[in-house]
Specification:
Elements lengths: L2 H19 L3 H11 L5 H23 L6 H7 E3 L1 H12 L4 E5 L5 H7 L6 E6 L5 H12 L4 E4 L3 H7 L5 E6 L10 E5 L2 E5 L2 H9 L3 E10 L2 E10 L9 H16 L21
Length: 275
């Protein structure tokens, strides 16, 4: 399917998802109200509508991974020269790395563009209970060389691949169990943060990179990267978790419509401290 037709189909999907089905509209608008208390209702509704248009685009762009060529994908999702130099520097230093990113922009496309770097890319994922869709997901994510790690076996798999130069990529803005999380204020709300990324980075002392995916226009993205910590072992407790939460928040504020607002990010409450 050519891109022009794909986006016409996306427009049809948007109409049904937004106006007919109303998929998670209450969740989205409540997340936006809590995150942007300074915005009026019309501003929030505008972001909500733009988000659903983007969500439909990402859904079809992701399925495009089944057929798109690597060359065509790299026309639509490009790594900046600055980001490429950072990855190359660590490769030439013979250092494996840990990359953190959020559900901002087309995170599925980004993983395949990472394959233009020299590190072996490992992406973490939750296997799906439906066998057919799990196979389909694995096929889409591994077409261009990415390898997948079941999140339950992250540490064991990283130990097994320690002899390789690897880039292990984590999506940081998911919802951990409240009692095992680091809590901070994120988008004006009490928010739990996974500590596993920080613990793994410290255990292996792999440099921690943050990757930001900016949507330039419909169907086109740019990948930016920066080093958060070169020597994680030297950081204070929760310093890594706090750092990537702050920078992700900054980029969400710049392009709020391309973050995953339909996710129930704030379903848990901060546990009360024991006296």
């Amino acid at each position: 399917m050519p891109f022009w037709l794909l986006y016409r189909l996306s427009d049809v999907f948007f109409f049904f998802m937004y106006y007919v089905l109303g998929y998670r509209k209450k969740v989205v608008i409540q997340n936006l109200r809590n995150s942007f208390p300074e915005k009026n209702e019309q501003e929030l509704k505008n972001i909500q509508k733009q988000f659903y248009q983007f969500l439909c685009d990402v859904f079809l762009e992701t399925f495009k991974l089944l057929t798109i060529s690597k060359k065509e994908l790299q026309k639509h999702c490009q790594m900046t020269g600055q980001a490429q130099r950072i990855f190359d520097t660590y490769y030439h230093q013979k250092k494996s790395i840990v990359t953190v990113m959020g559900h901002l922009g087309n995170w599925e496309w980004a993983g395949h563009v990472f394959d233009s770097t020299k590190h072996q890319l490992y992406g973490l994922y939750h296997p799906l209970s439906n066998t057919y869709f799990n196979r389909l997901t694995v096929k889409m994510r591994t077409r261009f060389g990415m390898k997948l790690i079941d999140m339950k076996h992250t540490f064991r798999e990283m130990v097994a691949h320690k002899a390789e130069l690897t880039n292990t990529t984590f999506i940081s803005d998911q919802t951990p169990q409240p009692n095992n999380a680091y809590w901070t204020t994120f988008l004006n709300q009490d928010t739990p943060i996974f500590t596993g990324i920080e613990k793994i980075a410290k255990k292996f002392n792999y440099p921690v990179l943050y990757v930001y995916l900016k949507r330039e226009k419909r169907g086109y993205y740019k990948i930016y990267a920066q080093t958060l910590f070169d020597n994680p072992i030297e950081t204070k407790e929760n310093e890594i978790s706090e750092a990537h939460a702050r920078i992700l928040e900054q980029h969400i504020l710049q392009q709020p419509e391309v973050w995953l607002w339909s996710h129930r990010r704030w379903k848990h409450k901060r546990p009360e401290l024991k006296k």
